[in-house]
Structure formats: structure tokens, C-alpha cells
Amino acid sequence: MNINRCPGCLAPGNNTYCKKCIKKLFNGKKVSHILTFDRPEFGASISGIQIKHSLKLENNNLILTEKKGEYILKPVPSGQFENLGQLPANEHLTMQIAAQVYKINTAANALIFFSDNQVAYITKRFDLLSDGIKLLQEDFAQISQRSEETHGKNYKYDFSYEEIAGLIKKYVNAYPVEIESYFRIVLFNYLFSNGDAHLKNFSLYRNQSYGDYTLTPFYDLLNTTLHVPGEKDMALELFKDGFETEQFRLASKYTKPDFIEFAERIGINKVRLNKIYNKMLDNSPEVENLVSQSFLLDSLKSQYLNNYHLRLDRLNS
Ligand SMILES: [Zn+2]
Predict the structure, then answer these.
(1) Given a cut of 60, is residue 162 above it in pLDDT?
(2) Neighbours of ion ligand 1 (CB under 5 A)
(3) CB-based contact 255:317 (threshold 8 Å)
(4) What is the structure's pLDDT at 48?
(5) What is the pLDDT of residues 13-69, one digit of tens each?
(6) Distance from the CA of 197 to the center of ligand 1, in angstroms?
(7) Which residues lie below 8 Å from residue 214, measured CB to CB, with a gap of 6+?
(8) Distance from the CA of 110 to the center of ligand 1, in angstroms?
(9) Distance 313 CA to ligand 1 centre (A)
(10) How far is the CA of 306 from the centre of ligand 1 (A)?
(11) What is the pLDDT of residue 136?
(12) Which is nearest to 293 in space by CA: 305, 281, 280?
């Protein structure tokens, strides 16, 4: 299989993981991008609807494990959504754009292939320290004390991004810094049509050295409209009190005034907002380059870029 680019960072001229990715993902161990086994029929399922497998590194090989998993492997899911065979490539591309173009703190990730060439998405767990100690991590469903039992089936979605910001303010001492990261990821999710950024896709963990809570790296970023056409633009409402800008009332779509109002409500001043906002909207050539280098099928590459340009237009208006 000739892949012509690094299945980690998508850099051209590689036929397996490049040196940087080997270091970042596998602590310098030369792990092959082809696993030694086929897709498991039944595996160590971690959580969620999508089947996930737990892997650990043994010598230079990734092997399935029940305990002490260091990596999470997400094969192509089965179900009724569209283009599911492309989901690993979509998640990988979106995570790489976030990290490389927007410098968003994301979980280390790559594509990897089963021995029968089937593609999967692999991500390194960020809640484990090198000595095996597990950091205390809580997602915002836990932090807001919402579960299916207490708030019904829709508990992950009956909330607003403004309310999550309120919880960040409550628990994170470095709020002024962290709230900017949070604003950028909310904007990123909108720009890249990630309509499933619900409560469980944001987490805090406790920094061992300071005892303080910080946002964990971001994870599960993907363009959901490739799989669920006509999905809602965002998983949660921006505002907690049903507030709507005049522009939103007219078009039922979030545009620049909504994000200005949102930034103000969560405590980002105008100078910082302008800087962050303009930077987020100014990366087209780099985005286009990564999309073209990605493992998506050509038809989905153009769909991916179309979606991006549509959202870019909205955010510029
Ligand atoms: Zn690489």
C-alpha cells in the first residue's frame, strides 16, 4: 500500500509515520502504520455508541488490551449514517486542521490500518502520565451533574455553550486564558460543521503539580454534516437564556454578531476578540492544503471544503 504521506500529520513524501509523529505518538518507537491484526469482531469496548478498542504499546507493536490501554482505536462504525467508511479520515483531518492550522490543543492522533488495509482512527490517551498515573478527568456532563437518569435522553444537548463557560469560570483558576481556548474551539466547531460538540466532548482535568483544573486537549472533532446531512448547525445553543441577535432572528443562522455577543458574555474583551476572530477566519490556503493531502475520497474533499467556505461566509457577514 503506497500512501505517499504521513498518516499522522499528512506531510507528503512519507510512506509511513514521519519522525515527528513517531516521537509524538509512540515515544520514538518505530511503530508501523499497519497493525499486525485484523479488525476485531468483539473488542474491549470503552464507551459510547461507536465501538472503541483499547491498545497498548509492546516493544514496537500496538496490541489489543483490556487493561492499561494507552491508545484508543476507533474503526469504521456501522449504522445508518452516510459515508461512514470515511469517518476515520474525516475525524483525522479535522483534528489535524485544528492542531496544525489553528494551534488548538488536541489529543495526539493518526490514521492506522488493520492488516487487511481497513482504516481506523487512533488517538493517544492524554489522561495518563508517563509513569502510568491517571489524571482525574471529568467531562461537562459530569461537571454539570447531568445524566440520562436526571435529565432524560437528551441530557448531553439540553445546555448552552454559555453555560459551559460559566462552569469553566467556576472551576478553572486560569479562566482568562482558558476561556480564549474555549471560545476558539466553539468557533472552530462552527467553522468546520461539527454539529455534535455536546457536553461530553469537553472535559477538565486536574493538574498534578498545581492542583488546579484546566481544559483537557480537545477530541472527537469532525465534520458531522458529511454523515448527517441537515444536522443542526451546533449541538448546543450559544446562549443560555434563549437570546437571539437580530440577524439570527432573520436568518436562523449564527453569524458574526452572535459570536461577538457570545464572546462578550463569556468575558473576552473586544481587543482580544477581534484578534482571535480575525485569525480564525484567515487560514484558507493551509486548510485547503490539508484537505487535499487528507485520506478522504475526492468527492468528500470537495464537500468538506464547500461546507467550510459556507461557514466562512457566514462568519464574515
Ligand atoms: Zn507525520
Answers:
(1) yes
(2) 6, 8-9, 18, 21
(3) yes
(4) 40
(5) 999 999 999 999 999 999 999 999 999 875 444 444 678 999 999 999 999 998 889
(6) 26
(7) 172, 174, 178, 204, 205, 207
(8) 9
(9) 31
(10) 26
(11) 87
(12) 305
Nearest by Cα to 238 from 172, 188, 292, 165? 165
CA of 75 relative to ligand 1 center, distance in Å: 20
Phi and psi at residue 193, in whole multiples of 5°? 50, 40
Q: Residues 219-277: pLDDT tens digits? A: 999 999 999 988 899 999 999 999 999 999 999 999 999 999 999 999 999 999 999 99
pLDDT band at 210 (very low <50, low <70, confident <90, very high): low
For range 146-158, the mean pLDDT: 96
